[in-house]
Amino acid sequence: MNGSLHSSRDALEIKLRRGPAGLGFNIIGGVDQQYVVNDNGIYVSKIKQDGAAAQDGRLQEGDKILSINGIPLENRTHKSVVELFRTAGESVELRVQKKPFLEDQPTDSQPEHHSPSSYLEILALFAGVIVLLAVAYKMKK
Questions:
Q1: Among 3, 47, 58, 103, which residue has the least CB neighbours within 10 Å?
Q2: How far apart, in Å, are the Cα atoms of 112 and each of 45, 99, 106, 108?
Q3: Looking at the domain covering 5-101, what would its CATH class be?
Q4: Membrane-spanning regions, if any (predicted)?
């Protein structure tokens, strides 16, 4: 591993050492180019292969970067945050909010899953309707 991890309920600390390719990730967001509606935060848009972040393995695309070296990134322009990263030094401490997993999403945004028994129930109901229609047709003759 390239750094250390201190997690809290909402965020974790990731320490990265700048490598030949920098920190090894791209960012998106800021007050001037919101990535998430009603959120001026800075997000990881790409992890560069073989970069410091990829070697460490904890930072992922979609994670929100809350601060760099203790400096909060909320309500800053994209350009000013890029400059903070550029001048951050060799060892960089990031406070990161992990991208939420599917189980953290509202239930109406998750794909609907049916158990195999529910498919059998639907099939049985459909077969029952066909039988009733066939009986009704025969009685009508």
A1: 103
A2: 28, 22, 12, 9
A3: mainly beta
A4: 119-137
